[in-house]
Amino acid sequence: MNRTVMQRTPRGTTRPPLGFGVIALLAIALVVLAVSALGVSLVVSGGGYEPPAAGLPDPGPLVVWGVPTLRLLTEIAALATIGWLLAACILDPAGKDGVISRVGRVDAIRASIAALIWSVLALAQMFFVLANVLGITLSQAFNPAIFATYASDIPATRALMVMALLAFIVAFAAFVTSTIGAEAGWLIVALVAVSLPALGGHGAGLGDHSLAITAGVAHILAAVIWVGGLMALTLHAVRRDGSLQTSLQRFSAISLIAIVLLAVSGIANAYTHLDTIDQLFTTGYGQVVLGKALLIVVLGIIGWILRRRVVTGANRASGVALFARIAGLELAIMVLAVALGVTLASSAPPRQQTAFNSFGETLLGFAYPPPPTVLTVGLGFRLEPLFLTLGLVGAALYCIGVARLRARGDKWPWGRLIAWLIGIGIMIWCTNAGIATYSQVSVGLHMFQHMTMTMLAPIMLVLGAPATLALRALKPSHGTERGPREWLMWFLHSWITRLLTNPFYVFFIYVIGLYGLYMTPLFGWLMGSHAGHVFMQLHFLAAGYLFYWVLIGIDPRPKPLPYWGRLLMLMLALSVHGFFAVAMMMASTPLAIEWYGVVQPDWIVDPLRDTMIGAQVAWGLSEVPTVIVLIVIAIQWSRSDEREAKRADRRADRDGGVELAEYNERFTRLAQRDRQD
Q1: Rounded CA gap, 149 and 316, in Å?
Q2: Which helix (H) or strand (E) holds 452?
Q3: CA geometry: angle at 96 spanning 93 and 98, to 5°?
Q4: Which of 479, 480, 488 has its CA nearest to residue 401?
Q5: Buried b / exposed e along 357-391 (16+ C-beta atoms within 10 A)
Q6: Would you state the pLDDT for residue 528?
Q7: pLDDT of residue 5
């Protein structure tokens, strides 16, 4: 049972925690501050209402001002939801057996209420955005005929619809669940929901749209985790309803990562939205960027003060009071920064869209590449920040784990380290080299990228055994709460892993990745957006990793497949892959002509022949990974038999060969029975 901490005044009396009414007034004051800052910054950046020229559609000032205002309120509700979910599953002390504590349960209920408000605000914002995009009044946007015709076709309104649905799911699920794992799952759902508007923002129309979109999503995620977490901790401080020291120590590490990610993504955002540095000073948009950057620097300084002066004494009454004051100031500055962020998202950036020579190049966001050669395909470069960052972080963490083992005198096979780094290198090459550019305009080169990403990279990554390394490198946690190692152990033995490594499920995902993607309009639709393209690549990598984890994985899993079953599964997959390649060769129409027919450079004169080349690539490249996996399975099977023989010999030495004697005696009895018959 958590005891309420009471702060003593100089006269020796106790000061009770702030009541709900006072906290509500403070929250309203923060919202009013944010809305006021939003209005001022919109005027500075030129994002406010201006009457259009005669003859142009005019949604009216209510709609124009209402869109950013509702977006700000929606983001504040999302911040509260994510912050309380973060507190419930990570920051608050945990209960027993993975169940959230009493304080965590209260935070989960708060998150549920905030998520419900978030869902309602997202729906309201959707109608305002619909009116603003179509240039109609708000009452016309509520017309069912107009809504049914246009709402699902506009990316912004479609994103808000999905956001509202996900927020409603979180509202219901957070209320009825009470385990740490469940609340962590709803936290992930909430993070997905809050990042949806960034996928169709201003960055989608810029020449560096891949960097702009990735940086925008990263910026939002870092901000909501940082601001939301501080919001939850500030409420705990002013309510004095629990111990803050452990929560602050955990949040300190999270906030440090968040502020670094926020700064890096902010610089990337500024680069993609401004043409020159002087626009930071000569344009209203740039001045708002500078103001937001200044606020983030101030927040970083305040966060450093919190870590140095407050965390160690957070359980004392004076420490709680000091944290509440500093955190309140930090939260007010954060709300101002969020308002400026909404202003930037609601205002047109100074950078002009890159002018291209064709509609296809405009869709791609870059000029058509020259005819492919070994050098241009193998050595070219086009930044894909997500996979480059994931690859570098994955390689660094793996090397740190190996170094930690060797520092304490343990060994780790060099072959696994080399395999992991090769897998990371293949993944980065597939997504950042010239092949990544050519795969967007050529079916044949897309198939080359797909086969490499799905078959070669996962083989190397699986042979690196990252989970086994993590289990050996991570330190066990103290007490009843789960640390990173305990969470990894839980995941490896959970129903989730049992499902993910089920041979039937893995085979289904493998088949869907071929037939369900390439034999339906889904492929062309996903190629039409950067988010869809990234989703495909993630699917290729994840599906391949699961497939080869079942076949040749070293990491522990609930029910390993027998070696004969692995060979059978490999042969079935090879057959399915062969049928797919043959079906592509027999096709009478080009693959995904709705995309590749539009982004068609001059050196592709026959799209059907390009599809045929893709089928040949799919057929030919499947042989190399199959041979590699067959060799690995044969080696693992042989070593398994050797280990089993050694275990049998040791068991025989211990018990004098009792098992072998019983085995021989059984056959002797059977032989005697046969003679008697």
Answers
A1: 59
A2: none
A3: 85
A4: 488
A5: eeebbbebbbebbeebeeebbeebebebbbbeebb
A6: 81
A7: 41
pLDDT at 318: 57
What secondary structure letter does DSSP report for 6? -
Q: How many CA atoms lie within 13 A of 88 on its CB side?
A: 31
pLDDT < 50 positions in the chain: 1-15, 202-207
pLDDT at 8: 43
pLDDT at 384: 87
| Residues composing the chain | 677
Q: Give the residue from 133, 76, 83 showing the smallest Cα distance to 104.
A: 83
Token code pair at residue 281: 């000073």
Give me the pLDDT at residue 581, please.
87
3-state secondary structure 364-426: HCCCCCCCCCHHHHHHCECCCHHHHHHHHHHHHHHHHHHHHHHHCCCCCCHHHHHHHHHHHHH
What angle do helix axes 180-195 and 209-239 make, rounded to 10 degrees?
A: 130
Distances 625 to 289, 415, 451, 464, 511 between C-alpha atoms, Å: 49, 18, 9, 16, 17
- CA 509 distance to own-chain centroid: 20
Distance CA 249, CA 219 (A): 23
Q: Decide the pairing of beta strands 7-8 and 14-15.
A: antiparallel
Six-digit token pair at 237?
């401080």
Residue 661 corresponds to which tokens in the numbers above? 């004697």
The H helix count followed by the E strand count for the chain is 31, 2
Q: So what's the pLDDT on residue 659?
A: 60
Residue 316: per-residue pLDDT: 57
pLDDT given for residue 661 in this prediction: 62
Nearest partner of 478 among 59, 94, 82, judged by Cα: 94
Cα angle 172, 86, 169; round to 5: 20
Count other C-beta atoms under 10 Å from residue 309's C-beta.
13
Q: 338 — phi, psi (to 5°)?
A: -65, -40
Q: Which helix (H) or strand (E) holds 306?
A: none
pTM listed for this prediction: 0.82
Q: What angle do CA 110, 115, 120 make, to 5 degrees?
A: 135
Residue with tokens 């009216």: 60
SS3 546: helix
Phi and psi, residue 7, nearest 5° = -95, 130
Q: What SS3 class is residue 7?
A: strand
